[in-house]
Specification:
Length: 205
Amino acid sequence: MKITHSLLFSALAAMVATGCAQQSGVTVGSDQAGRANTASGSMYPAPANPNSPDFSQYKTYSWSSQITNSQNSVFFLNDLLFKTMVRDAVEHEMAAKGYTYQPTGGDLVVNFRSFDQPTEITSNDNLGTGYWDSTEPYAYAGERKVQLDKGSILLQMIDRKKGVEIWHGYASGLTDGNVFDKNKDKVYVAVGQIFKEYNHRADKL
């Protein structure tokens, strides 16, 4: 009977989480280097690149410089508390995927930001001045494009040694009327949904 109750509780919890995501109108998407993907929001054109990254080599990560800058809130609607909230949610998901944080020199450089208005990204210019520091030589390929609705969080993972993006994910539709919805529960659910798109781990379960 205890097992039945436990299973029932788990099922109800899953239904509630799913219902929250649907009711909030949040949509998620992702893409990774070397994967053929012609879906809306994809940065990478078909066909698949035979030189796809080996995700098993990535064990550690570091934040980008704008994430570690405690005074920089420009990419988070000038709200440092909101920035911290998103960072903590991403940190939680990275740990859940088995990645170890390193202040510097991680295998991956993780960067993210929010958009309160619909945005089309075709170059680093669309990400904003200072999103990548001059010491972070991430070259944005011109053929890559992603379209985001209002109320979006975009997350990118960069191979630090190669200076190229290996994966990105996003959630769009985090809105309350015409403003970005910063409700902590909704933000954590949205970030969790982004990471459900990430089918890799740093460890083996």
